[in-house]
Specification:
Blueprint (H helix, E strand, L loop, with lengths): L1 H27 L3 H8 L9 H21 L1 H6 L6 H31 L4 H15 L2 H6 L2 H24 L5 H14 L2 H10 L3 H4 L1
Helix pairs in contact: 1-5, 1-10, 3-8, 3-9, 5-6, 5-8, 5-9, 6-8, 8-9
Length: 205
């Protein structure tokens, strides 16, 4: 059964990672320097120490929360070996970057240019982030898992949106916080969702 869960989790992470990587390549292939600047790799990243501190606190706090709530994450949080874990790290890098560009950089800036206030920007960004993570209910086949993921990731999205505002709209601190979180909780969080769905008798063979 464990091999089946590992295979499911690996394939799911691989699909997500490739999908995210396609977006990264499409964004960056024409102008790598411009893409780096869009991500926040520029002189402003050294002028926002408060944002970096808040981002680090957010990452540490969310990893600790997830470890407390999900036994599989807690028991493997410092495990960095095996193909599945390295696929999780690849997913952490690609997913953390793309999701922050979409939900913070693009969505919040779009709301800003639409003359929405900071509170609305933060709220919409956080809720949209949580709604996307309702997909956990599809991966795990459980609305309980989906709702738990929605609530926790909505809070995370709100915190990362605050980081983005504190960073004066440099998205890099939020990206790094997101990547740090995913590095420690994946692939175990995916495996927990897959495990909640169970394994069919045919797959056990």
């Amino acid at each position: 059964m464990e091999r089946v869960l590992n295979r499911r989790a690996f394939m799911l992470l691989a699909v997500i990672s490739v999908f995210m990587t396609v977006f990264i390549v499409m964004w960056s292939c024409r102008d790598i320097a411009g893409f780096a600047d869009y991500v926040g790799i520029n002189e402003t990243m050294l002028c926002i120490p408060v944002a970096w501190v808040v981002a680090l606190c957010t990452a540490v706090g969310y990893v600790a929360y997830t470890a407390c709530m999900v036994p599989l994450v807690r028991s493997n949080i410092f495990v960095f070996r095996g193909l599945l874990k390295w696929m999780g790290i690849y997913a952490a890098l690609s997913g953390g970057l793309v999701e922050e560009l979409v939900f913070r950089r693009m969505l919040m800036d779009w709301l800003y240019w639409g003359e929405c206030g900071i509170v609305i920007q933060i709220f919409v960004s956080g809720v949209a982030f949580g709604l996307v993570h309702l997909s956990w209910s599809l991966f795990g086949g459980s609305w309980r898992v989906g709702m738990a993921s929605f609530l926790s990731t909505t809070v995370l999205g709100l915190l990362l949106a605050v980081v983005y505002i504190i960073a004066d709209r440099n998205v890099l601190p939020a990206v790094m916080a997101h990547i740090i979180i995913n590095i420690f909780v994946e692939p175990w969080l995916i495996m927990n969702a897959v495990e909640s769905h169970g394994v069919s008798d045919e797959e056990r063979k």
